[in-house]
């Protein structure tokens, strides 16, 4: 399995001090988080994509290219690349370029995002969200696999004899995760292409996650890519830890209460009971994360959100240290116990290149 960090890049006031970081400070903090993830022995850093306040990561490939130059092992990904409002040609070329710069340490997660106004900003209609996701990815998939593309669709100008440059590194496109919280059409899309399905389950109860993952696994097998158990699944998670669980709850509560994506809603205790959010000791994080396998099966990637809601950078880096020192080593060992031999490892450029070469 791969373990890592994802960031949504929110610029949020620290509720305990009232101070709001500058955009520059937040961008630099995201870089520091990525570097810390590699130092701590984690596998993946993923950044979101947003084009509106209070978020800063409007250009994920710019950030990931900078991180690529400062890391050696870390897999660089997105927590959402907006397949609905980005031009598929630009996605194809940007991520192929990043592949070359990072020596293949690149994949991406496609999604529709959760900000409705972004559609008209980029000349699209939110009511066409699902058709846009389907058509744009159909083109992106071809651009990475065909040297010359003739194409005509509904949402962009036709292409005649078009070649996206640079070509994917070693002829192997970046691995694609299709990210969705609630749309079965996206699980179906991931299954159809034999791609990965990432269910960012931080807002949802286990039963919902189970249904979405089971649908994807069943359809993956239906399209002939392997057994349901061989489908490639990723999950989200959100943690805040201290050695003492009571200290973690006391420290995190003011941040939870005003968090941009779930503040002013259910209580912290209710949210922890109903979703994967874990605020407590490292052992509690281990136990709850291991329980994901009970309803998602053996899966390939686990990403944690640790920097949301105005948490100071120092605190976030402490969280990553706890993950690297006390949590992830145990998760690696325990998730390996009883894992069937035919369940694939998480895809990497090296493993996919070896498969392509037979």
From TrEMBL:
Residue ranges of the region described as Disordered: 1-21
InterPro entries: Bact_Lucif_Oxidored, LLM_FMN-dep_put, Luciferase-like_dom, Luciferase-like_sf
Residue span(s) of domain Luciferase-like: 1-295
A Pfam family matched in the record: Bac_luciferase
UniProt keyword annotations, A-Z: Monooxygenase, Oxidoreductase
UniProt keyword Transport, yes or no: no
Stated name of the protein: Oxidoreductase
Segments passing through the bilayer: none
CDD domains attached to this UniProt entry: Tetrahydromethanopterin_reductase
Biased amino acid composition, Low complexity: 9-20
Top-level taxon of origin: Bacteria
